[in-house]
Amino acid sequence: MTTYEGKCHCGHHQWEVKLEQDQSKHILCHCDTCKILGGGAFTMNQIIPKSALKITKGGEPSNYKYKGDSGNSVNCSYCPKCTTHIYHHQEIMGPDTIVVRTSLLPEARKNFDVGAEIYGKDKMKWEKEIGQTFEVLPPQ
Ligand SMILES: [Zn+2]
Ligand SMILES: [Zn+2]
């Protein structure tokens, strides 16, 4: 288990994420919501227990809620000053699981490989395959 430090663009929020060895990889999400909210072709994430994230500066982040594919709510937690999305909670995953943005952890940006790609169905047609790609999500 390694602790990684995260920081939003403006530095108002800082946090720590604990990741096991097999979680120390980016999961690329190609869904259209990630393109719109993130401004790029995909976002880089990891699924973790809620207890593995600790906000160390900035207090409770702001919240943006939308309906996901499944019809269940997705709650996005973001910095109110610079709008960086720190993590998401998908209600369908239960109360104790969240999705953190690995692209916001400087060490992860430098060192992580790609673990898998999800929402391959929405991938830009000019993107090459980097990791194992799932049409939507891996089978449970
Ligand atoms: Zn910020
Ligand atoms: Zn996505």
TrEMBL record:
GO terms for molecular function: carbon-sulfur lyase activity; metal ion binding. The keyword Hydrolase does not apply. PROSITE patterns: CENP_V_GFA (PS51891). It holds the Pfam family GFA. The keyword Glycoprotein does not apply. Residues 4-120 form the CENP-V/GFA domain. Keywords: Lyase, Metal-binding, Zinc. InterPro entries: CENP-V/GFA, Mss4-like_sf. Belongs to the Gfa family. This is CENP-V/GFA domain-containing protein. It comes from Friedmanniomyces simplex. The lineage of its organism: Eukaryota, Fungi, Dikarya, Ascomycota, Pezizomycotina.
